[in-house]
Amino acid sequence: MNVLEVKGLHKKYGSRDILHDVNFHVGLHEIVGFVGPNGTGKSTTMKCIAGLTEFHQGQILIHGHDIQKDRIAALSEQSSFIEGPALYPELSGKDNIKLFASLRGVSKERVQEMIDMTKLEKHINRKVGQYSMGMKQRVALAIALMSKPKLIMLDEPTNGLDPSGILDLLSMVKEITQTEEVGFLFSCHTLSDVEKIADRVIFIKDGSMVDASTYEQSQKISYHVKVSKKAHEVFTQLGLIYQYHDLFQAYTVEIKDITLDTLLSALQDAQIEILEITKIEQSVETMYKDIYHEES
Ligand SMILES: Nc1ncnc2c1ncn2[C@@H]1O[C@H](COP(=O)(O)OP(=O)(O)OP(=O)(O)O)[C@@H](O)[C@H]1O
Question: Which residues form the ABC transporter domain (predicted)?
């Protein structure tokens, strides 16, 4: 079962349409990166899912519970930190965690398990006000996880972290996704961070989802093709953009208007044997630039 399903979500602030027809899902043990420029509606979508703001149309199911029909059951299956972790700076890391644990009826054993999992033991008795941003994020993660939610949402979790803090947090999220019964939705502006951990990336543009699969199909796809002899003529006749790499005796070919089958049979007709063919995956950054027509 998916831990989150968002179907046809519409949201207005006043008379202004902010989200129109937002659709996506997050699976169990899956990390979904939520990407889009400032103001496209990522935080608003997350706030709708976290029950922090109303929406006007659509359906949100958290681990199968409808947030409108079965609000308490749905919201108790999720945990989120949107716009930074809200912690008590005068309390120690441990007291912050214990405070939330007592409010949620979480056992001492689970509290200790969370401290171990987020590698906080060494600093746990220091005041949170003296923590680095990375340590605050880890406390927030421990709090988010303690009641065993099926869905965790992180809004810009790497903001304000130094490179090693980012790597620590990302590897922790990756590990947690494998060991706990949970799925993550996280928004992030740093595309290289998204690429490091996301199993899947979803794009939002002007309050609507970009259908990445349709988008990919409509775009050029590049293949790495190793052939038995030079095939410049075949590629030129088909009007393809190609590059020959002497070192590998192979081509990079972009295909847009013709199908791969057309290319393969043209090579066959020219009695050129295909020794190897692999699709070159588009990076998140390339897709981002193509979708938003701007620098990432
Ligand atoms: N409380 C509010 N009242 C009115 N408009 C709002 C409110 N919150 C957000 N908006 C507007 O909704 C749009 C989407 O904002 P949102 O914060 O969801 O974008 P975002 O993609 O998360 O951007 P960022 O990456 O900057 O956080 C923006 O135009 C914003 O100005």
Answer: 4-231
